[in-house]
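Subject: two folds for Thursday's group meeting

Dear M.,

Sorry for the delay on this. The cluster queue was jammed most of the week, so I only got both jobs back this morning. I'm pasting them in the order they finished. Each block is the input sequence followed by the predicted structure tokens. Could you check whether the formatting survives your parser before we put anything on slides? The first protein is the one we discussed after the seminar.
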Amino acid sequence: MAFFTENHMNKTELIAKLALDTDLSKVQAQAALESVIQTITEQLQQGEAVNILGFGSFVVTERAARTARNPRTGEAIEVAAAKAPRFKPGKALKDALAA
């Protein structure tokens, strides 16, 4: 059974693969994935990092306010400071991709 379409895996395909690998139903696999995503989101909203040993870390970074240019008009616009999620891959993931 192929799980990838056009060189990427979407959420539905990820749920199907998770269900197959864990002997969970697709409904259970979806609930588990949704729980993981929700937990990571909640922790990031609180400014906390989520570290998954061997995989990587999800962290929140601050982007400073800056002045940018509208490419169409050349007009200067102010871009407000913002928080942005970042993923830092762990060594084991980097090593797996290098192989």
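Second protein, same layout:
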Amino acid sequence: MSVKLFMLLIKASMRSRMQYKFNFLFSTAMASCVHISEFLMVALVMMRFGNIKGWTLYEVCYLYGVIMISKAIYRTLASDVHHLEKYLVSGDLDALLIRPVPVLLALMTQNSRVLFAEIGQGLILLAIAMKALMSTGQIGWSAVPLTVLMIGSGAVILFAIGLATAASGFWLTRIEYLQNMTEDATHTAARYPLSLYPKWLQGALLVLVPVGFVNYIPALYVLRHQGGAWMLLGTIAVSCAALWLAMRFWKTGLSRYQSTGS
């Protein structure tokens, strides 16, 4: 029932946003330009200097595509979780509290829109990378369902990180800078192999903010056949644990929320 209600609210929110078609098309085009330019800068550097610590351009392209799609799914299905601060500051969260649906469900379905640019570019990057890696025999067709599994678990992990960060707003209220660290900065870092970073940063991206499990850890098995299948099982376990902890943190924070009318 909750899933059906969630999908109905998502569709209603998307229909309302599609009323402004020019704004939708323009924002999609701008997002495409930004992401294309970001990846082209990385590609040009790697084409000039070759492999970086043993990672090829196509392997980095694969990592980039996986986290781009995972993030796009998270932001499509739970857009305003990332924007909880404005609800806390303006008091608009009060309106969600009186709705006959769970607060988180109501928040997740506000201002929903499908991120076509990010999903499309991620799929293109994955197609290019996997075709090249298959042609050299590095991976086989079994990598396709494993990649789908990676994207799904990755979206759950990114949602959990976003939800936990948002929930901290019940105590801090202003969380923009914290989100810059836990979401924006870590997402950018995880586009590249974690082996490029110092040990302390690798640990932070695997333990404190586990974005390394979105693409890097499972990719070690899918692309390089390292560590065995436990790499994927561990990734699924991390996604489940992260989601459970984030939900608990959210419920604790929501119970402490002071309405603007109180």
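Two things I noticed about the second structure. The radius of gyration is 19 Å. The longest helix spans residues 21-49.

Cheers,
T.
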